[in-house]
From TrEMBL:
InterPro entries: ARD, ARD_euk, RmlC-like_jellyroll, RmlC_Cupin_sf. GO terms for molecular function: acireductone dioxygenase [iron(II)-requiring] activity; metal ion binding. Its main location: membrane. This is acireductone dioxygenase (Fe(2+)-requiring). It comes from Phalacrocorax carbo (Great cormorant). Its EC number is 1.13.11.54. Keywords: Amino-acid biosynthesis, Cytoplasm, Dioxygenase, Iron, Metal-binding, Methionine biosynthesis, Nickel, Nucleus, Oxidoreductase.
Length: 140
């Protein structure tokens, strides 16, 4: 169990970061009064996309939804709230949106330097997507 109220000193979070080699992190607050270009950013986050690296998010406050595609290309909505952590694998199509509270504060974690590039769908020709699809085939 992670302690979102004390994330700076939480030994469980420290161990996860060490074990997974999450060497870089920052904190983003998504709220109309806190995020520059809020409307534009919200639209960007909700565009279906993928990344070449895993996307790791730890919710420190507030709540929202990650939508991901299952192996049959249907949406799965994942409710995220304070204390939740998620790792979306490289190559998975996804999007993020706030819930009715219109607020979330999240830690973004990376292995090495952050790469922010999002590849909007379709991006099936990218190696990360092909690798992810191969992983799904192996699991089936």
């Amino acid at each position: 169990q992670l302690d979102a109220d004390n994330y700076e000193t939480d030994p469980c979070l420290k161990e996860i970061r060490r074990a997974e080699n999450y060497s870089w992190m920052d904190i983003i607050t998504i709220h109309k009064d806190k995020l520059p270009n809020y409307e534009e950013k919200i639209k960007t986050f909700y565009e279906e996309h993928l990344h070449l690296d895993d996307e790791i998010r730890y919710i420190l406050d507030g709540s929202g939804y990650f939508d991901v595609r299952d192996k049959d290309d249907k949406w799965i909505r994942i409710s995220m709230e304070k204390g939740d952590m998620i790792t979306l694998p490289a190559g998975i199509y996804h999007r993020f949106t706030l819930d009715e509270n219109n607020y979330v504060k999240a830690m973004r974690l990376f292995v090495g330097e952050p790469v922010w590039t999002a590849y909007n769908r379709p991006a099936d020709d990218l190696p990360a997507r092909k690798q992810y699809m191969s992983f799904l085939d192996e699991e089936a």
